[in-house]
Design brief:
The complex is a heterodimer of chains A (about 350) and B (about 290). Chain A has about 350 residues and is mostly helical. Chain A is built from 13 helices and no strands. Chain A is globular. The mean pLDDT of chain A is about 85. The termini of chain B are far apart. Chain B is mostly helical. Chain B has a single domain, classed as MetI-like (MetI-like fold, Orthogonal Bundle). The chains are: A mainly alpha (about 350), B mainly alpha (about 290).
Chain lengths: ~350, ~290
């Protein structure tokens, strides 16, 4: 193909990807806007009270911008979003975006560690389960993963706390840092482990890791269960194919067959699986952070929920939705990179 | 007239069914668990509502014993009764989600797959967009705005659950688009709408059902999550997720208050999981 046509194709694909991205983002923001706008409680009445005069009511309504057509309101909403203005939190009285910036690193730290556990544990487990499909090893692998995707994550967290913290004393108490270490590390990135390493405060680092251990293992286990299950199913699809038979007939060792012939074929769908697992991880964090008193996005969202702070809830929703969309985009780009067939 | 001994067709098909069940452990186990779940939910109607809310403050936080088989919670309510009541609420939510998301996805997907063209592209874009949105978080935001309650929570979940069904139905419908009987119906003068509704749609139902049963695990867990956060069934109504949340305060000394509803959620969700996997093994020979 000529260079010109090739460039044009890349450009077309970029436009397509970008277009879908914009559309998805519009879908997300339209949904959050609709939820915020069409709340059954009248926001004007909340401010002016029951016995306000019609003029006062109209005045406040105009102030809130509610008398403009819906599309204009939506455009204003989008405009504010672009400048990262997510409104003000009713509880903390500070801008929602500021609150989110404060709590997000904690969740990011937790989710990243959990993701590493999930991927490093889940993929080998899934491959193992696929290799030993008929026998007891495979059955054990499946049984080990089973509670991970069938039990509610918040309950898993609670039971893990009871067993490993209360009864066995192996895990730390809930929270991000011990009482002695609270606020002792200067905030650079917001990631406690990184900041402690930067400050060369090794005691604080080990304390942070000790507190990270149980929540990330619980969330990581849930990820691991999902990833291993999908990996197993993908591997089984491949293992039934003829090229596997051919490789074995040629005398290749089993591990070579598995890892050099079969596994690369599932890398592409596996990227999508990992992206989905990360999304599930974020949702799991929303539910489980309260259990572990983890001061992250999830706890922020649930606290705002209990306090009826809709601005914060919607702001957090937009953030999480944006992360979802970015992760999907990344996996899209990654699998075009991994599968040579999609490049031509 | 010779008399041949032919077993009635009923016996033959039930024998086939039994063989089917015996060969598929997952399917049988799943069906069993779900039957237990449904029966428990139905049993709950045999008791008056008061049985689930009866407090006996002198008997609070008892571990499982002879009178209270699963123990009592912090208000002295019988956990066994509460768990049974919770089954009812969970079943209701599952049914609501299935009845809203299932037909919606089926209709959109089958139409999109059959008609093709720009409608197909537009609907698939819509599916992609909804799929890219965080399900639990959106359900949370929606329930926060609309107010707590079983119906609101179920609707919130259903709104984000239909895309996979649409995808599945679309795949089936696309395969059927050029089937002989469809062409025949068209030649006979059937309108496109009639063809979609009466010919294509029914054939997509089984794939959608398999997908739905696999999905129900996630629905139950999401519903429990919403209940855990206080959206969903409101006290004093019993709901498993809410019961787990209530058990948090007494977690250290009386863990069973939170453990029991969690196990119930696990068993229900596991049942649908096994059912879905079993159905997939049976209906999709590629995977065996």
């Amino acid at each position: 193909m000529s260079a010109y046509l090739h460039r044009r194709q890349i450009l077309q694909r970029l436009v397509g990807v970008f277009g879908t991205l914009i559309l998805t983002f519009i879908g997300l923001t339209a949904t959050t806007f609709a939820i915020g706008r069409f709340v059954p409680v009248d926001p004007v009445a909340v401010i002016v009270g029951d016995r306000a005069s019609p003029e006062a009511y109209q005045k406040v309504r105009a102030e809130l911008g509610l008398d403009k057509p819906v599309l204009t309101q939506y455009a204003n909403y989008l405009g504010k979003l672009v400048t990262l203005d997510l409104g003000q939190s009713l509880v903390t009285r500070s801008p929602v975006s500021q609150d989110l910036a404060k709590v997000f690193p904690a969740t990011f730290e937790l989710a990243s560690l959990a993701m590493i556990i999930g991927v490093m544990g889940g993929i080998p487990l899934g491959v193992l389960a696929a290799q030993h499909k008929g026998d007891w090893v495979g059955a054990v692998c499946r049984v080990v993963a089973l509670p991970g995707y069938s039990t509610p994550i918040f309950w898993l967290g609670m039971m893990a706390l009871v067993v490993f913290y209360v009864n066995l004393g192996w895990a730390s108490e809930p929270g991000r840092a011990g009482i002695a270490f609270q606020g002792s590390v200067p905030v650079v990135t917001g990631l406690l482990t990184l900041d402690a390493a930067i400050a060369r405060d090794w005691a604080a680092l080990s304390d942070a890791l000790f507190h990270l251990a149980l929540p990330s293992i619980v969330l990581g286990y849930a990820s691991l269960a999902y990833i291993s299950r999908m990996t197993r199913s993908l591997m089984l699809d491949q293992l039934g194919q003829e090229f596997v038979l051919a490789a074995r007939a040629k005398g290749a060792s089993e591990s070579r067959v598995i890892w050099r012939h079969v596994f690369p074929n599932i890398l592409v769908p596996l990227v999508t699986v990992v992206a989905l697992a990360y999304a599930q991880l974020l949702e799991g964090a929303v539910l489980t952070e309260t259990v572990f008193s983890w001061p992250g996005l999830g706890q922020y969202m649930t606290t705002s929920l209990f306090n009826g702070d809709l601005n914060s809830v919607l702001g957090a929703t937009v953030l999480i939705g944006a992360i979802f969309i970015s992760v999907n985009l990344l996996s899209d780009i990654l699998y075009r990179f991994l599968d040579p067939r999609t490049r031509v | 007239m010779t008399q041949t001994l032919v077993p009635p067709s009923g016996a033959r098909s039930s024998a086939r069914l039994i063989t089917l069940l015996r060969r598929n452990g997952s399917l049988t186990a799943g069906l069993l668990l779900i039957s237990v779940f449904v029966i428990t939910a139905l049993i709950s109607f045999a008791f008056p509502d008061a049985a689930f809310y009866e407090q006996s403050l002198g008997d609070r936080l008892l571990s499982p014993n002879a009178t209270y088989w699963l123990g009592t919670d912090d208000l002295g309510r019988d956990l066994l009764m509460r768990t049974i009541a919770g089954a009812r609420v969970t079943l209701l939510m599952v049914l609501l989600v299935a009845l809203v998301a299932g037909p919606l996805g089926l209709l959109l997907g089958a139409t999109s797959g059959y008609v093709g063209g720009w409608l197909d592209k537009a609907l698939m874009r819509l599916t992609d967009i909804v799929l890219a949105l965080p399900r639990l978080v959106l359900a949370l935001a929606l329930a926060a705005a609309l107010g707590a309650g079983v119906v609101n929570a179920a609707l919130a979940i259903a709104i984000t659950t239909w895309p996979p069904y649409a995808r599945v139905a679309r795949a089936e419908a696309m395969a059927l688009r050029n089937a002989d009987f469809v062409i025949a119906a068209r030649l006979q003068g059937a309108s496109e709408g009639r063809i979609v509704l009466r010919y294509v749609l029914p054939l997509c139902v089984s794939s959608v059902l398999v997908r739905m049963s696999l999905d129900m695990t996630g629905v139950i867990l999401t519903a429990a999550g919403l209940g855990f956060l206080g959206l969903g069934a409101q006290p004093p109504m019993a709901e498993w997720g809410a019961m787990v949340a209530a058990g948090r305060s007494t977690l250290i000394d009386h863990p069973w208050v939170a453990a029991v509803p969690g196990i119930a959620i696990f068993l229900a969700s596991l049942g649908f999981n096994l059912l879905g996997e079993g159905l997939r093994d049976v209906l999709d020979p590629r995977n065996t």
